[in-house]
């Protein structure tokens, strides 16, 4: 098996970038010397296509370059993960379907999944099921205690208490991510 030296993680936006920046060393640090996060939704489509094609070509030449492409499930537009992946493949024809990672239902569910009940109480998060498999962005936003000055501050507080194994137990798509890419 080839050992990869460099990993590119393509994410949609700021919340995804914050999340992967916080967990990248714990999840990937022993496999890659360099882990770069690219916010693709804020770049022109052609620029992202060229970047993906270049990374894929380097990987195919055995140069130790790999990528993961992360997207939310976007259930209001797509009935299933397969349909979401097909949409991504239409936009990015060079993408390898096995490198697409769907955060279900959205990345916010992963943030909350990694925080146990004790730490949820410390953060004054209203009681909710530890299972975050159906937690939407709108439901997540309603959980933010008024004591936080911003949404980003709340996200960072969740990451301060985040545990991979807790998230694995509380969210199926996060467990799948760890199984597939770790």
Oligomer: single chain
Q: What integer value in Å does the Rg equal?
A: 17 Å
Looking across the biggest beta sheet, what order are the strands in?
A: 2-1-3-4
CATH topology of the largest domain: Rossmann fold
Largest sheet: 4 strands, parallel
| Low-pLDDT segments, ≥5 res | none
What proportion strand? Answer: 5-15%
Description of the molecule:
The protein is α/β, with parallel strands linked by helices. The chain folds into 2 domains: 6-103, Rossmann fold (3-Layer(aba) Sandwich), CATH 3.40.50; 109-158, no CATH class. Helices cover 49% and strands 13% of the residues. It is built from 9 helices and 4 strands; from the N terminus they run E-H-E-H-E-H-E-H-H-H-H-H-H. It has a 4-stranded parallel beta sheet, with helices on both faces. Strand 1, helix 1 (14-28) and strand 2 (34-39) form a beta-alpha-beta unit. The mean pLDDT is 91.
Concise account of the structure shown:
With 182 residues, this protein is of the alpha/beta class.
Keywords for this entry:
2 domains, four-stranded parallel beta sheet, 4 strands, globular, 182 residues, Rossmann fold, 49% helix, alpha/beta, single chain
Layout of strands and helices, then pairs:
Blueprint: E1 6-11, H1 14-28, E2 34-39, H2 45-60, E3 65-72, H3 81-91, E4 100-103, H4 107-113, H5 117-122, H6 137-143, H7 151-160, H8 164-170, H9 172-181
Parallel strand pairs: 1-2, 1-3, 3-4
């Amino acid at each position: 098996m080839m050992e990869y030296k460099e990993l590119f993680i393509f994410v949609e936006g700021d919340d995804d970038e914050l999340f992967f920046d916080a967990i990248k060393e714990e999840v990937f640090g022993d496999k890659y010397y360099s882990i770069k996060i690219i916010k693709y939704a804020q770049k022109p489509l052609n620029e992202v296509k060229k970047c993906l094609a270049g990374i894929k070509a380097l990987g195919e030449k055995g140069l130790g370059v790999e990528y993961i492409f992360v997207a939310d499930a976007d259930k209001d537009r797509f009935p299933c993960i397969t349909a979401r992946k097909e949409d991504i493949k239409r936009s990015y024809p060079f993408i390898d379907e096995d490198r697409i990672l769907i955060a279900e239902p959205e990345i916010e569910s992963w943030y909350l999944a990694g925080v146990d009940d004790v730490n949820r109480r410390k953060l004054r998060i209203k009681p909710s099921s530890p299972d975050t498999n159906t937690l939407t962005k709108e439901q997540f936003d309603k959980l933010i205690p008024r004591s936080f000055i911003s949404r980003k501050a709340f996200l960072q507080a969740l990451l301060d208490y985040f545990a991979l194994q807790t998230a694995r137990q509380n969210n199926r798509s996060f467990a799948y991510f760890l199984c597939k890419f770790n």
